[in-house]
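Troubleshooting log. The previous structure file for this entry was overwritten by mistake, so regenerating from the original sequence record. Sequence copied from the archived sheet and checked twice against the printout by T.R.
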Amino acid sequence: MLAQQWTYRDARVRRVSKAIFLYDGVCGLCNRGVQFILRHDAKGSFRFASLQSQFAHRALARHQLNAADLDTVYVVVDSGGDEALLARSDAVLFVMREIGGFWRAGAAVLGWLPRRLRDGGYDLVARHRYRVFGRFDTCPVPGENVRSRFLDV
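Regenerated output below.
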């Protein structure tokens, strides 16, 4: 059975035990995003894999997507057997909602914007992220204290 793609609004009503954040491992902005999630994910809900990893290639292939597109972050959500995939602004809003607190409120407000507008803003940042936030030669290695949360180490 082909896994489905959810929208942020669909994912709001589902309970999630674990989610996997797929990111461009050499992107400075993406790596800062991972560090942000690690600092704010008190429940330990998120695991991580770079888009350059075999794990990401297999996960995206299940959804008939190509991991060569490094301009997009994804969240793979498993809510008890049904795997789904969130991309771009839907993935970012999902992360904000799961982190909670102020970020949950921000996700609720941004979630009312049309996806086309949210994704337009996402694409603008994605286009300029290397120039503004830098680029690593290789994926940074996570510290010992969080290494178990990375699926491609």
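The CA atoms of residues 35 and 142 lie 9 Å apart. Archived copy saved in two places this time.
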